[in-house]
Amino acid sequence: MALAELQALERDYAIPTYARNPVEFVRGSGCTLWDADGNEYLDFLAGISVLNVGHCHPRIVEVVREQVARLTHVTNLYYTEPAMRLSARLSESSLGGKVFLCNSGAEANEAAIKLVRRARPRGDIVVLQDGFHGRTYGALSATPQESKQAPFAPLVPGFVVVPKDPAALDAAVDERTAAVLIEPIQGETGIHILSEELLAAARDACDRTGAALVFDEIQTGMGRTGTLWAYEQTGVVPDALTSAKALGGGLPIGALVTGTRLADVLRPGDHGSTFAGGPLISSAALAALEICADAELLARVRVLGERFAAGLAALPYATAVRGRGLMLAIDLAPGVSAPDVARRALLEQRLVVNATGPGTIRFEPPLVVSEAEVDGALARLQKLCP
């Protein structure tokens, strides 16, 4: 089907919530995508940090084929081995508590909100300026961005927004606070690393008041920053974390993982989901976890991240480089439009990147990216000089 026909179908039948680029991708492998005309693209977005294992990783394909031929769904009224093994693996790889499986990052954050409110009924939840936690009502209420919230007011009450300042955060947390919910690296607003002082202040404030510290690792987890979970590089251990995006190896899944203190807060009937943790998706997630937890892969993420960051800093239109591992962003020189650069990268250089705002470009390639592909991306970006 021609692109014009797809655009006509979208115009007539799809609710217009996306500003799509004029490309139809039909095949992928590793860090490479192909469009309907056979053109080859270098993917440095990975579906917004979803394809950490790369497109169509052979192990993911094998596991999905085997499982879909055996069993796809039975509901959580019954046991399946993949869901129980995945819960165990997630717990053992992180906080050592228990796991609620769901279908997306927003759902994982919704589960976290219910968890902390169950632990401290009617408690407030402290969130940071510029944070992003999802688009469902609880997650949206935790996302203090006027453009996203205003059209859908009134929102869920009980969220307290504070600046990214340790003293302000500490002052906002008291015995009425149920939780502090933060991303260790804020992704959707342009890859902003929270300072060690801010994270330590959040931990100290929660310890002082009995509130829960929850890390949203939906974008930072699964090896993206060079360790399986970003918190491992901070010296701060949260009471719970949320995961999604890359967890399914390209398939939709999310998870709330608790530490031991919050492991038994939610009770039978408190929460649920029809599709959550199905055997097909859980099997894929188990394989993705195994791939992303590999020590050699994680070491390469750190090395290639440094190489890529150095190359980005040399771009004549880049004024700043931020990030960790293979979660990076550049700010552009005044007068240079990030949406225009991203569009030119796609259409002229066949490089897939993302503008997170008018002056910032985000890069999140698959973690299986090679040194040659990093250098190739940099060469294509050099050709975009205004």
Description:
The structure is a single chain. This protein has helices at 3-13, 46-49, 58-68, 81-92, 105-119, 137-141, 146-149, 166-172, 196-209, 279-292, 295-313, 338-349, 371-382, and strands spanning 25-29, 32-35, 40-43, 96-102, 124-128, 159-162, 177-182, 185-186, 192-193, 212-216, 240-243, 254-259, 318-324, 327-332, 351-352, 354-357, 360-363. β13 (318-324) and β14 (327-332) form a beta hairpin. By secondary structure, it is α/β, with parallel strands linked by helices. It starts with a helix and ends with a helix. It is 36% helix and 20% strand. The protein is built from 13 helices and 17 strands. The protein folds into two domains: 3-56 and 295-382, Aspartate Aminotransferase, domain 1; 71-292, Aspartate Aminotransferase, domain 2 (3-Layer(aba) Sandwich). The strands form four sheets. Strands 4-12-11-10-7-5-6 form a seven-stranded mixed β-sheet, with helices on both faces.
